[in-house]
Amino acid sequence: MQRRGGCVVLGLLILSGLAAPDRGEAWDDVAHQVICEIAFQDLTPPARAAVQRLLGTEPDPTLRHFSTACTWADHPRQRAPEHYLNLPRTQTRVTAADQACPLADVCVLTAIAADTAVLKDATASDADKLAALKFLSHWIGDLHQPLHISFHDDRGGNEVEVKGLCTPNLHAVWDTCLLTQGVSPSAARVVASLRAELTDSDRQAWTQGDMIAWADESYQITVAPNVKYCVQVGTTCQYAADNPTFEVGEPKRTVTINAKYFATHTPIVRGRLLKAGVRLGHVLNGIFGATK
């Protein structure tokens, strides 16, 4: 539910056809659908044929379209620890050392590596490859959601409350609210809008680097002061100015989500979705033997 103080701004969003309630604990289904549709449209003919062949083996007919298959890992939530990367609060960048997940046995980076290996394994069954395709496509989406590259104690902003134009917490703001209220609740509309902006020079620039660099892009957004996820005190990005980490039972911080927050961060969400789609397409083209 929206708070009364946000009615004027929300009304403007509604007049633009861009309002919907926020839900979920991961990139919203709309976001994953957007990312995977952008990727699918960027596949080379051999890669597209390989993806379609695997999707043709899907027993659930509702998941035989790539854009919907990419939401599968959230319904129900599967391999939960692999949807994100937790870092120490003193860490300033994501580095190659984080490929091994500094605070856990598995994370989104190890998940990407594992499912990429399955798709490249000539001896793997179609069933295993289909699952790996659905997981990998979801993981690359999650890698580009800034608050999936964050801190363990506040669960990536789930323990940071919000008021104003979004509810109930900061993680949900970035998973869903900025997209469905600030861009559109329609995946098809978002895809069309984003692809209209895409250039070949964008593709070339964005497909450089690796998963570590792409994760670091997300992390730099996460810890940016205007996101209001954490408070920089010396070399530590603390939960609050007087509290390094969140402890269950203590008062939670509250962040106001207003028109200025939307104006600042909706373009960032658009950029993360478009980059994720282009990069996922690039990764799949590479796996299936043809780069674009």
What can you tell me about this protein's structure?
The structure is a single chain. The chain has 292 residues and is mainly α. The chain has a single domain (4-287), classed as P1 Nuclease (Orthogonal Bundle). The chain is built from eleven helices and six strands. Strands 1-2 form a two-stranded parallel sheet. A two-stranded parallel sheet has the order 3-6. Helix 2 (29-41) packs across helix 11 (259-287). The protein is globular, with a radius of gyration of 19 Å. Mean pLDDT is 91; it is low at 1-25.
Strand count, sense and closure of the main sheet?
A: 2 strands, parallel
Overall radius of gyration: 19 Å
Number of helices: 11
Shape: globular
CATH domain fold name: P1 Nuclease
Instruction: State the name of the first-level CATH class.
Output: Mainly Alpha
Order of strands across the widest beta sheet? 1-2
In the CATH classification, which architecture applies?
Answer: Orthogonal Bundle
The percentage helix is 40-55%
Q: Kindly report the name of the CATH homologous superfamily.
A: P1 Nuclease
Low-confidence region ranges: 1-25
Calculate the terminal CA-CA distance, rounded to whole Å.
44 Å
Domains (count): 1
Oligomer: single chain
Give the overall average pLDDT: 91
